[in-house]
Amino acid sequence: MLKSPHNKRLDLSQEVGFCFLKPDYVDLADDFEADLNDASLEVVHRRSIVLPMRIIDYIYSDSRGEDFYPTMRHELASRAIEAMVVMRSEEDASDALAAQYILESVKRGLNGYPNLRKKYHRSEHKVNDKTFADWQEKRLNGDELDQVTIRLTQQNVFHASDGPHDGIGTLLRLRELKDENIQGFFQGPLGPRTEELVGRLDEILTRHAGERDMSKIIREWRVIHEMPEDDIELPIRQVYTWLLTQDKQVVIVSKDGEKWQLPGGKPDNGEDATQTAIREVFEETSVDISSYSDRLNFFGEYKIEDHETEIHPPRYRQVRAWLQLPVDADQLRLSTAKEAGGQRPEDAVRFVRTVPTKDILQYIDWLEKTDEYKALKRNKIIDRADLA
Description:
The strands form three sheets. A five-stranded mixed β-sheet has the order 5-10-11-6-9, sandwiched between helices. By secondary structure, it is of the alpha+beta class. It has helices at 12-15, 29-38, 53-59, 69-77, 99-108, 116-120, 129-141, 147-154, 164-175, 192-209, 273-285, 360-363, 371-378, and strands spanning 16-21, 41-49, 81-88, 158-160, 218-223, 236-244, 249-254, 260-261, 264-265, 297-305, 315-324, 351-356. Helix 9 (164-175) packs across helix 10 (192-209). It has two domains: 12-207, Alpha-Beta Plaits (2-Layer Sandwich); 214-387, Nucleoside Triphosphate Pyrophosphohydrolase, CATH 3.90.79.10.
């Protein structure tokens, strides 16, 4: 098993980050790296690469519906960027901020860190208010967009993923690149810390490749209107909750930053469905919903027959609930710090985030054909427009 310099397994969610300099700024790479070092971040791997379209689509998934996106996408995929993997400096590995959040801080000048976007921004990429207004009018009229799009693409100097989930997800996708026409990001000599990172990424990819065929598991949906009874034929094995915010976002969690799901899990010590939902949401997101327990809406459950794994009994129930929180997403203090110990590290939830409900299928693609997804649309728990 790989060990970090601190004699523990490398924590991807805390110690690793990913960023890249935009094409017009790659000549600043050495100075930029020095500034990252000053922010307690060590650049452990750096390479000039041309990003393939599928990586750009993943990185900018929140912009893909915008009409300026094709121009921006082409610009970024036609020229080399300077990509960097960073880790917290070894002497600073116990810092409160994760490496990716330090990158977020230097991107915006937060938490006492300098604003490196502002420091390196070149005047030729500035867009004044009138030029931007004219560009917006072209967008609204459906006119062909111009060089202003490229200037807007470049003006942010560098990209840093939005938290550990996106950073690790990007690295996993780069690691998977097999196209001979693309310069592989992890080619070339690697330092010991990068070797350790690559080993962890390969573990995740190997695990995904070996996952069981879920299509062989029989799932039968049943609508319910209140907390399910415990005394029917089959036991409740899992409870999952759609945690919704006022600004139309949903909370999702992940064990590896790659595959996402709703917060939830199995009942402990005779818990009912409500108690399970409250505990699992708190452990995996640090959001305490106990004061909203009377608002939990149990809207359906799956009867599951699973003879592919060693689950006993092979027939059980998996319950779904939704809860509308009276706050916006940015008011949540999401963390996985409450996740229960005593389980294998690979089974623990390590990542949590909110995403717009309209983008949920980009993170949990198998939801699209499920009855629970259709039920939420049909009953307008989430607006149809958001899920179009």
